[in-house]
Specification:
The structure holds two protein chains of two kinds.
Chain A: H1 2-19, H2 43-46, E1 74-75, E2 78-82, H3 90-106, E3 109-110, E4 114-118, H4 120-132, E5 140-142, H5 148-152, H6 160-166, H7 177-183, E6 196-201, E7 203-208, H8 209-212, H9 215-225, H10 233-237, H11 241-251, H12 271-281, H13 302-313, H14 327-335, E8 341-345, E9 368-372, E10 376-377, E11 383-384, E12 387-388, E13 390-396, H15 402-415, H16 418-427, H17 435-438, H18 449-455, E14 461-462, H19 470-486, H20 492-509
Parallel strand pairs in A: 1-3, 2-4, 2-5, 12-14
Antiparallel strand pairs in A: 5-13, 6-13, 7-8, 7-9, 10-11
Helix pairs in contact in A: 12-13, 19-20
Chain B: H1 10-16, H2 24-59, E1 62-63, E2 73-74, H3 78-84, H4 87-120, H5 127-134, H6 136-139, H7 142-153, H8 159-166, H9 181-206, H10 210-218, H11 223-251, H12 255-260, H13 272-282, H14 286-321
Antiparallel strand pairs in B: 1-2
Helix pairs in contact in B: 3-14, 4-9, 4-11, 9-11, 11-14, 13-14
The chains are: A alpha/beta, B mainly alpha.
């Protein structure tokens, strides 16, 4: 049986070789992202490049619909979104408004929005195989910023620059370069844009304002520390981490079921990594060299190890289950009144109160204040904070047919209308990412807008890899980092060294770097 | 010579009322009917099993990551040589064998005890209901079992910690504790599959000839003597088959672990099937993961061969006895 299998297996290699478009089967080294058309094989994209405008050729699908070319048509449309992440479900709730807009403006009917969803860690698994098979099941997709390389290199998504060239109104000035670098550009630093910002996100901390303002707490804190308990956003905007932890410690009462804070240490997706990064970035650590794609010698630094020890050390202010905490757990701990504070993505601000919260919980946004991440002392002695970027862009499926492509562009034109953004931000928990949106006075009352914009300021946050290998690299370090948190890995230095070696190996094997991993990396296991 | 013993002509057969042998066409019809029944199954088997296996085997000689821009690139046995040096995967494989040995041992011993108790209690009222309830865990999907066990083991609101606290124990986070996570998964897997081994034990005990048991009773043999000389020789084939089936099944354990611990904490519960899942469907490293899948296929084939050997052995013994 084994011999028979081997024989037919060898025969199948010939079939696979036949799939290869290259002469010698080595064409896998080609980099479509570096080509002029960004690797898009879609016929309608290639033939419509260049300096053409929509006035020259209104039927170019990337122009969207003209007054006439979609009249009377009926289009089926679908998108993919991140399950359990409310901001990515907003388009579905707002879809009827787009249906009316499409009918009134362009004269076509578009179906009810079909959608597929999966949690952060699984959505890529859902959409990648469909795109690999050339499917247009998902015409538009909300994706994580880390996926830009994986989606653009095989030519699965439309290059946003092509759409901007034909529709300058979509090329909106961002609040800062962080928006462009996080949600749009791949390869890093190339200036080539693939994504359209959907939901921007930065990190902050939610605090129990009602507890801070309680005179009994203020008096007790004064007695315990000799200091006044800060109560306003302004007092917290520049607070140092050690001063902040003094307050966390004051409220920490595990025996009474109250914890000082809540952070993410889960092995799931990028939860641990993103929560840890600010501790590393802000104290002078780096996770890789984006120019040479090297990791070893950078991630496994003493600074990063000290930052990880500090980060994991904060588990003393958190429940025993800290090592499995994710976004949802932090919402629960905070809204149920079991934690004084929560280090959280600000995009979930709308869910950090719950009108049905139990007594002692957070039933109203008046009960909390949201602040930027506390600052660390940087190597130069200055107070410094660099958070991790969150959030997601839209991307357009390059396998869309012409009509679906037009509807996708129409949708984006509608999505970025100020009145649509108002509904997204004011009624559906969205956040602004453009200069104009950030200055909109209508959004000023959003309780977490101020820290969000603060962290979106130049140099205050940074995103990590957008390479197609992100998933492998992330899985390695999530396992090692979480292993350190749970005690299965002996030290932070070991977790970082293991991750750095394995990531160097992944990038070396993928041809991203010429520097080989240290000897023995392949056989290395977590200690 | 009697007429009945003489070779009879068709005419004489008709006279005697003996039906003529079926013509060759009837035999051919039967063959076609058999093939007609077999073909749909074969087509399904070839489409869903043989072709993907061949494809996987072929892919294992290629460098192909779904998310990379390139086409599959033939690299010969590079994936296999890389596999040979992949420490974490061998660690996972070792962990899987440990899990397999412990799980099958626990399930066999406890399943045998439970099965024997049921066998001896055939006159107890409510036995049938108890048997039905006993088999419930086996019927549930590993996904639902994993989910509710994770909730029961939860250190904050889990019922197990609640009762533990009532008797003065400290709360334990079973699924993230470096020492307890592996045993926790082992316990849940055993909870699910002890009923299966109990069922196999019942079947084995049912196959012991009554006459031999009665003879043993007349000879006044002790429990152990009856077990060693009567029960085990008669029922061992069924038990061995149960053990082999469980061995093959435990080797493939993935969903239960994925849901309970996600392979954690760190890599403490990362069995080889979970590692394969990560490689194939998280990293999309299809060439390399195919090589690992081929390796696991050969291990599964080896285990299945033992299973088939035992089955044949039994058939041969029965034939010899007959």
């Amino acid at each position: 049986m084994v011999a028979a299998l081997a024989a037919v297996g060898l025969a199948s290699t010939a079939v696979l070789a036949g799939c290869s478009s290259g002469d010698d089967g080595a064409s896998g080294t080609d980099d479509p992202a570096a080509s002029d058309d960004g690797g898009n094989d879609s016929e309608n994209l290639n033939e419509d490049g260049g300096g053409e405008t929509c006035a020259d050729n209104p039927d170019n699908p990337l122009c969207g619909s003209s007054d006439t070319n979609m009249q009377g048509k009926s289009i089926e449309f679908g998108y993919s979104r991140i399950g359990g992440w409310p901001p990515s479900a907003a388009p579905e709730a707002m879809w009827p408004a787009f249906q009316s807009y499409a009918k009134e403006t362009y004269g076509y009917d578009v179906s009810d929005l079909a959608f597929a969803e999966a949690p952060f860690g699984e959505l890529f698994q859902k959409i990648a195989p469909t795109l690999a098979s050339g499917s247009n099941e998902f015409n538009l997709m909300i994706v994580d910023s880390q996926w830009l390389g994986a989606l653009s290199e095989p030519g699965w998504i439309v290059k946003a620059d092509d759409v901007f060239a034909l529709n300058p109104e979509l090329d909106i000035e961002p609040y800062s370069s962080l928006v462009t670098n996080t949600y749009q550009v791949y390869p890093d630093g190339s200036g080539q844009r693939w994504g359209f910002p959907q939901m921007p996100d930065t990190q902050g901390v939610f605090l129990r304002k009602d507890w801070l303002e309680d005179p009994a707490n203020q008096a007790a804190f004064k007695d315990a520390t000799g200091k006044d308990l800060p109560t306003t956003y302004e007092e917290y905007e520049n607070i140092l981490m050690d001063d902040f932890l003094e307050i966390v410690d004051f409220f920490n009462d595990p025996s009474g079921g109250i914890y000082g804070t809540a952070m993410m240490y889960s092995k799931e997706y990028d939860f641990f990594s993103c929560a840890y990064y600010p501790f590393a970035y802000s104290t002078g650590g780096e996770i890789w060299n984006p120019e040479t794609n090297d990791v070893y010698g950078i991630l496994n630094s003493e600074v990063n190890a000290a930052a990880m020890e500090k980060f994991v050390g904060l588990s003393e202010y958190q429940p025993e289950t800290f090592a499995t905490q994710g976004i949802g757990d932090m919402i629960d701990l905070f809204t149920q009144g079991r934690a004084f504070s929560a280090f959280q993505w600000l995009a979930v601000g709308a869910f950090m109160h719950n009108p049905e919260a139990p007594e002692g919980g957070v039933a109203s946004p008046d009960q909390y204040i949201a602040i930027p991440l506390p600052k660390f002392e940087a190597p130069d002695g200055d107070a410094n904070i660099i958070g991790a970027m969150g959030g997601q862009p839209w991307v357009i499926n390059s396998f869309n047919d012409d009509d679906q492509m037009r509807v996708s562009v129409d949708f984006l034109k509608w999505w970025y209308l100020p009145e649509t953004q108002d509904v997204f931000i004011l009624d559906n928990g969205g956040l602004p990412w453009s200069k104009e949106g950030a200055a909109n006075p209508a959004y000023a009352d959003i309780p977490y807008l101020k820290p969000f914009l603060y962290m979106l300021g130049e140099g205050r946050s940074q995103d990590f890899w957008h390479l197609p290998e992100y998933s492998e690299m992330l899985a390695v370090q999530q396992e090692a980092f979480n292993g350190y948190a749970t005690g299965t890995v002996s030290s932070a230095a070991e977790a970082l060294d293991y991750s750095a070696a394995k990531q160097q190996e992944i990038l070396f094997n993928a041809g991203r770097t010429t520097v080989a991993p240290p000897e023995g990396t392949a056989g290395r296991t977590l200690q | 010579m009697s007429s009945s013993s003489a070779p009879s002509s068709v005419a004489s057969r008709l006279e005697e009322g003996i039906p003529a042998p079926a013509p060759p066409r009837a035999k051919s019809k039967k063959t076609w009917w058999s093939w007609g029944l077999l073909v749909p199954v074969l087509v399904f088997f070839i489409l869903m099993n043989v072709i993907p296996t061949i494809w996987m085997l072929g892919l294992s000689f290629y460098n192909y990551t779904l998310t990379s821009s390139g086409d599959p690139r033939f690299i010969g046995i590079d994936n296999y040589t890389q596999l040979a040096g992949a420490g974490p995967l061998w660690l996972s494989l070792g962990r899987t064998f440990t899990f397999m040995v412990l799980a099958v041992a626990i399930q066999t011993v406890l399943g045998a005890v439970v099965g024997y108790l049921f066998w001896k209690s055939n006159k107890v009222p409510g036995r049938r209901l108890a048997l039905t309830l006993l088999f419930t865990p086996m019927i549930l999907t590993p996904l639902s079992s994993g989910l509710f066990w994770r909730l029961m083991l939860d250190p904050v609101f889990g019922v197990i910690n609640y009762f533990g606290e009532l008797i003065g124990l400290e709360k334990i986070d079973f699924t993230t504790d470096a020492t307890l996570a592996f045993p926790a998964v082992l316990v849940v897997d055993s909870w699910m599959w002890i009923p299966f081994m109990a069922l196999m034990t019942l079947a084995a005990l049912g196959s012991v000839p009554k006459a031999e048991l009665e003879a043993a009773q007349v000879d006044n043999l002790s429990f152990w003597q009856r077990l060693v000389h009567v029960i085990i020789p008669a029922g061992k084939f069924i038990i061995i088959l149960g053990i082999l089936l469980r061995t093959i099944d435990v080797f493939k354990t993935m969903d239960l672990v994925y849901l309970m611990t996600n392979g954690g904490p760190g890599d403490r519960t990362e069995l080889i099937a979970v590692a394969l899942y990560r490689l194939a469907f998280k990293s999309f490293n299809l060439g390399y993961s195919s090589a690992l899948a081929v390796l696991l296929l050969f291990i599964a084939i080896a285990l299945t061969s033992i299973y088939l050997f035992v089955l044949n052995l039994r058939s041969r013994r029965e034939a010899e006895n007959a």
